[in-house]
Amino acid sequence: MRLLLTIILLLSFKLIIAQNDTIGVTISFKDAQVTDVLNEIETLTEYRFYYVKDWLGTTPVSGNYQNAGIQDVLQDIFNGTVINYYILKDKKIALNRNNIIYDELPPGFFGHLEKTEEVEDQENTIANNAIFVDKDDVSERNEVETVRIGKAHISTRNRFTLTGYVQNKKSGEPIANLSIVAKNSKIGTVTDASGFYTIELPSGLNVLETSSLGIESMRKNVIIYNDGRLDFLLNESVERLEEVVVRADIAKNVEEVAMGTTEISSEETKNVPVVLGERNILKIATTLPGISSVGEGATGFNVRGGNADQNLVIMDNAVIYNPTHFFGIFQAINPFTAEDLKIYKGSIPAEYGGRLSSVFEITNKDGNTDKFAGEASVGPVTNNVALEIPLVKEKSALIVGGRSSYSDWILRSLDEESLKNSQASFYDAILKYNHKINDNNEIRATGYYSRDAFSITSDSLYNYSNRLFSLRWSHKFNDQNSADLILANSQYKFNIDFDGETNTDFGFGYKVNETHLKYRMRYLLNEKHKFDYGISSKLYAVNPGDIDPEGNESIIEPQSIPKERALETALFFSDTYEFSERLLLDLGFRYSAYFALGASVQRVYEDGLPKEEGTLVESVEYDNNEIIKTYTGPEVRVSGRYFLGKDFSIKGSFNSTYQYIHTLSNNTTVSPIDTWKLSDLNIEPQRANQFSLGLYKNFDDHNFELSLEGYYKRSKNNLDFKVAAELLLNETIETEVLQGEGKAYGVEFLLKKNRGKFNGWLGYTYSRSFIKLDSEFAEELVNDGAYFPSNFDKPHDLSLVANYKFTKRFSLSTNFVYQTGRPVTYPIGNYTFRGADYAFYSDRNKFRIPNYYRLDLSFNVEGNHKLEKLAHSFWNISIYNVLGRNNPYSVFFITESGEIEAYKSSIFSIPIPTITYNFKF
């Protein structure tokens, strides 16, 4: 604290400020360099400037002055820069970068001085701008880089906002979930998925430290005078694993305002045992509270009592309609290119809409911009490879991934004749390009395609595919404003090729396509308010189905259902408002508008009567792009967090949502040949309101996370179907569907251990999901108009995922699942018709199939951890369904040879051993 004081005191005694300078300056310049302007002033006046030329930069300046004061001229020239000035005697002017030169010390600096109101004001003015360093800290701080943000100025503010991006120095990839802490003030923040951070710091000197798994820690001295930006380029860590302390995101579950959100890293899934050894981030999601599936072989997910079509699944901002392969057994997401999955089931951000229950946001990694890298695996049924290819060093890269199965080859190799004629195969491919144009502009583009083909009989071949493309341009206007412009297109289609022994061969095709444009803005107003806002628009195009005869002898008549089109547009806005240190609010609003478009023929039915052929009044024809029907509505997204104590918070949220597109399926579970139907004149959009409340507590220095959440949800216009409804190739689909009310409620418990040799989580959910189909007409009445359990109502759902590390290379993992059996409709009697027995069924979903439980085990072996290796290996030896539990997938009844027969189907009813080899280079 003495060296700096000595310099200031010497200046105070020897120099005199020319405060009352009366020399006028007359000068004019346009787009001139600052050095040239200063030289011109020296020529025209007696002033002389002293400075370091590199400080002044190359930004041109302009001005026109007539007999102006020198301070006015300099103020304009250096406005918006980090240059301050000090006028000495004899017309000498010293330029200084960032700092202000003070010619007096704060009152009471050398001892105690009784404060008056005037003294307090002077002290605050100087203390907020002058930086004094204790001599004991000089040696330590000299070893750390010092960065100055802004320039010193007279201000009443004592806190400023620092923002920036954190990237991997070698690859250029953003570093997410990195902790940044101001050591002296104990203020911290965490980077988001794009590596962006914002932190509020007290004015003056701050010592910032970074921390993250696999990333070298860094310390910087940051002297902050104003709001500004500081980016970090960090190296990968080469420390031994046990010496790395993971602190990033350590208290996020307690501190963040959002509730009902979950993040899963793709890398974290490699130790969890799954069927046939294929990593599956979506299956891991079902082990968390509030997320389940109907059973093995189901392609959809049920979130908080919602139907499977009520989940928005997006990958790099583009919708993926069917994210699974082979009836949900495998995921359609490449685990080597996927970075993480974020699930919103409670506090859904205002920017997302179009679904009632949840958002599954999948983000793929950026390619390594520094060096070539890759990862691959070989399993009993599938293989997988991903390559990262740098294109322009530290600027752009490409990541390429591909997966495929060789189950067809396995089936053809079997002796069983029926299996030889079967087919079951899939593949997917992904390509992502990332390019950093400059510090303010980045672009990312993703292309993806997947295809499945299977034949469960010798005469029918089913195939379905996903295709998507997305482009995102990220632009930073300044330290407070940034934006993303997103363009995406998605397509899902399936085909059925029938080649039987009769002359009824045919080909059937279905397709849904959507194009999405979104402009999203972020504005950091101050430390209290952070705004997100924008506009989003989607254009839907649905081809409900075409059937054509196959071969010259087929008697099938060609048929094509008219196409459907619609436009969905929304405005959204949210404000993350820090009301106080304890209370944090997120106030979101979304207003969506939906327009069903022609060309189309819509049928009008008589009011107050069932929609059927006998109540048809007229058919109305609409021209191309003519609006058939408009639906609009506000969607409120509000959540709040309040600290009850350290590491203990309570959160609440309310979400209202609209859904304008529906699945048509009269199967118990979602299948690859389910179709999507747009809202129109006769089918209204679904609506839902959800209330949530939760408690969150961390223990043992955040090693244990505990959460308890409850929710209650009401919905309208839920889509269901009449008994024996015909959905494919039906032009009057509105006569086969029913729309009713729904309600769901539940309590979710999660206990998670983050660190140590033993880690994992225990999740339990008690939930109920009901639907009501009430009408004054018997043909539209189900279960007498009372609420009855939905197909996916499972009151009890328990999951245990655990991992124990014996050493750094060897670990054992286990996964246990227990679920209440789902509802089913059983026959409660029989009747005879024309000499045959037929079943008489109970009320819908009155009974349940047996409860489901399963235990999986895996043993994981990592290769040695030498740094200089061609590739790092990882072996996974797992057993799926260790107990050999014959869990029923469905129970159904049919009449054969005049008698009622009951059947039970199950998948993987015996233990399934698997060994998979992975290597990374």
Automatic annotation (TrEMBL):
<dbReference type="GO" id="GO:0015344">
    <property type="term" value="F:siderophore uptake transmembrane transporter activity"/>
</dbReference>
<feature type="domain" description="TonB-dependent receptor plug">
    <location>
        <begin position="261"/>
        <end position="355"/>
    </location>
</feature>
<dbReference type="Pfam" id="PF07715">
    <property type="entry name" value="Plug"/>
</dbReference>
<keyword id="KW-0675">Receptor</keyword>
<dbReference type="InterPro" id="IPR037066">
    <property type="entry name" value="Plug_dom_sf"/>
</dbReference>
<dbReference type="InterPro" id="IPR008969">
    <property type="entry name" value="CarboxyPept-like_regulatory"/>
</dbReference>
<dbReference type="InterPro" id="IPR036942">
    <property type="entry name" value="Beta-barrel_TonB_sf"/>
</dbReference>
<dbReference type="InterPro" id="IPR039426">
    <property type="entry name" value="TonB-dep_rcpt-like"/>
</dbReference>
<dbReference type="GO" id="GO:0009279">
    <property type="term" value="C:cell outer membrane"/>
</dbReference>
<dbReference type="GO" id="GO:0044718">
    <property type="term" value="P:siderophore transmembrane transport"/>
</dbReference>
<keyword id="KW-0813">Transport</keyword>
<protein>
    <submittedName>
        <fullName>TonB-dependent receptor</fullName>
    </submittedName>
</protein>
<keyword id="KW-0732">Signal</keyword>
<keyword id="KW-0812">Transmembrane</keyword>
<dbReference type="Pfam" id="PF13715">
    <property type="entry name" value="CarbopepD_reg_2"/>
</dbReference>
<keyword id="KW-1134">Transmembrane beta strand</keyword>
<keyword id="KW-0998">Cell outer membrane</keyword>
<keyword id="KW-0472">Membrane</keyword>
<dbReference type="InterPro" id="IPR012910">
    <property type="entry name" value="Plug_dom"/>
</dbReference>
<comment type="similarity">
    <text>Belongs to the TonB-dependent receptor family.</text>
</comment>
